[in-house]
Every structure is written in structure tokens, then in C-alpha cells.
Amino acid sequence: MVDTWLVIGLGNPGPRYEATRHNVGQMVVDDLARRRGETFTAHKANARVVETWLRPGAAKLVLAKSNSYMNTSGGPVAALAKFYGVPAERVVVVHDELDIPFDTLKLKVGGGHGGHNGVRDIAKALGTPEFPRVRVGIGRPVGRQDPADWVLDPFSSAERTTLPILVGDAADAVEQLVDEGLLAAQQRWHAPRD
């Protein structure tokens, strides 16, 4: 039996949201697909997918982006998990995280949703919060800006200079999580970076 992992990059559909902080999860799965020379195709689960491999002879990866808005990500994710026969413990959700500083990654399995409506909806749809998460730090707004507005803003010009590195690191973290397990990935990505 093929070892299959479903990797979901969270975000909102359409050009209005493409470059926003809330869509950094989709940027990561785009990077994973680009590394493999693949492009996304429509799937009946209201999503776009790429079926590929971690590397030849290793795990199968289903990279996915929902066509629904962030707050209703659960339906497409649960439908894809069912379609591909992937249990929750192999559904990797890549998402933005307000409570982690920009340019920082954290990985975990399970726990609360931390106010992230996409994660909340996926946990509800899968019937469990026990799925791996690659949390990409976007930081909190300074001053009085509402976090709900902050996540829908594009990255600042200063952030955009570092963003490709952050996205690439998050893609590396996904690959390591699938290949070597959560603990090895945490040991690498939770360590202070130069």
C-alpha cells in the first residue's frame, strides 16, 4: 500500500487574496508543486490538487488548495482525505499563525485552533484536531490594527524580501515532517536560526 500524505495549504481563493498573509499556506504548497514541476488541476472536492511524490520510491504527496474561503476549508479537506483514503494523522495543514513572529516556523500535532477559523473548520470536518500543522509565523499587527484586517493585508515590502526564504523553509519543513517525522522536523525548525 502506498504511503499517502495530504498537504493542504490554507488561504482564500482569487487574485484579491493571493499575496496576503492569510494565504502563506497556499504559497508553501505552490512552492512544493513548483519544485516538482507540477501544476494544480481541478478536483471534484472543490479544490485544486497535485498528485506527486516526496521523491522517487518515497511517500505519495497530494498537495491541495481549497476553492472555498478560509473559514469553510473543512469540507474540501475532509472530502479530499476521504477520496484519497488519508487518515487525519497524515493530513498536514500549512497555515498562517498570528502568535508566532514573522519568519518563524512551528510544527505540532493536535491542540487548539488558536482562533484560526480555517484550522477550527478542518478539525470539525475531520472529527478530530489530531492532525499535523506547519504554522508559518506572520506576527501580530503593531498598534491598533484589527488582526482580521492584518491577515488580509499583503506582506510589507520589508517582509517580502524575506518571504521567499520563509516559504521555502516551510516547504522544507513539510518534506521533513513527511520523511522523518514530527520530532525530527521540530528539532530542526524550532531551533534558533542564524
Automatic annotation (TrEMBL):
This is Peptidyl-tRNA hydrolase. It is found in: Cytoplasm. Keywords: Cytoplasm, Hydrolase, RNA-binding, tRNA-binding. One of its GO terms (cellular component) is cytoplasm. GO terms for biological process: protein quality control for misfolded or incompletely synthesized proteins; rescue of stalled ribosome. The active site is at residue 22. The record marks 96 as: Stabilizes the basic form of H active site to accept a proton. TRNA binds at residues 17, 69, 71, 117. InterPro entries: Pept_tRNA_hydro, Pept_tRNA_hydro_CS, Pept_tRNA_hydro_sf. Its main location: cytoplasm. Belongs to the PTH family. Monomer. It comes from Microbacterium ginsengisoli. GO terms for molecular function: peptidyl-tRNA hydrolase activity; tRNA binding. Its EC number is 3.1.1.29. The gene is pth_2. Pfam families: Pept_tRNA_hydro. The lineage of its organism: Bacteria, Bacillati, Actinomycetota, Actinomycetes, Micrococcales. The record marks 12 as: Discriminates between blocked and unblocked aminoacyl-tRNA. It catalyses: an N-acyl-L-alpha-aminoacyl-tRNA + H2O = an N-acyl-L-amino acid + a tRNA + H(+). Catalyzes the release of premature peptidyl moieties from peptidyl-tRNA molecules trapped in stalled 50S ribosomal subunits, and thus maintains levels of free tRNAs and 50S ribosomes. It comes from the Bacteria.
